[in-house]
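Incident review: delayed structure delivery

Summary: a single-chain prediction request sat in the queue longer than the usual turnaround. Root cause was a stuck worker, restarted by the on-call engineer. No data loss occurred. The affected request and its eventual output are reproduced below so the record is complete for anyone auditing the incident later.

Affected input:
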Amino acid sequence: MKRLIYQTALFAYVNAICFRNFRPTCTKISEQYNRNILYNSENPYVSHDRLQRLLVLEEKWNRYLQKHYGCLIHRRKCSSKKRTYLLIDDTVIAKPYSKELDLLSWIFSPSDKQYLYGINVVFVLWTDGNTRFPIGFRIWYKEGTKTKIDLAMELLKDAKEIYKITPSFVLMDSFYPAAKLLKLIRKFSWHWIAKIKSNRLIDGIQVEEFFDYRYGNHIGKLSEHIRALVVKDNDNYWATSDLSLQSADVKHYYRYRQLIEEFFKILKSELRLEGCSARESIAQINHIYFVLIAFCQLELFRVNRKIETIYKIRSVFFDCIIPKTFHWNLQIMSFA
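Output delivered after worker restart:
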């Protein structure tokens, strides 16, 4: 695909997702993007076929994200006192009517509390509590050789080797704190905080039986001699590798893990992560990347304009003409 065709098709796809709320089919995107446009060499027509070719284009979109939006991370390096976090979690992209994709399987979704037929995707998200940036994702295949733990470890390696990140903590729910993942985090000289299940062993005893009171903490050893501070709050248990923390600190920092749940909500409800109807696996994967590019576009605009939420941006963008590039020089009174 020629460079101009590639660029204009990408602008059309991503900007249509950002400025409109419809199922992102190539026909609808072409129709919305080409509305109210004067066609010339600078603003060429973007057809349905051009968008379809973009969807099946084999391109290193992860490098595109790094090059164009890595600034969301690096702009914060000047604030050395600011705590940063890496959040690990997975989500199911529901595809109830798709039958031909090899990416699909029945997956239990804890947030939906039911089994969903779809694509199970593991994400790692960087945040400083305000700004967010997706380090990357991996698709988990039910019949594959890699577990979701293995995929999370690959993403953490990318965070260290590609983005040179040194987070204050890696946060995860009770599914992810496997011994090999915790050891990798400590190998990187990072700290972790995780929620743990009540039957997790500490000093050879299940944590629910270890504590006699509703609240408490204890420094002991998890499986494979991993030293950790374990905190109890009623029926909830957390563990961390930072033995200097107080119980209140552990619970406070762990609350930042909720940001990845909000991230999933934005991808699905605002940017139509589940809306791609393509039958090719590469098209589904590319659609995920394009949604992440759209998220980063909105996040960069939000941070630069000091706007509280992406939801507020979207409510105003619905009344705007879709831009023809990623340079959104928008003067909108609602943001003032």
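Verification: Residues 130 and 303 are 9 Å apart (CA to CA).
Action items: add queue-age alerting; document worker restart procedure.
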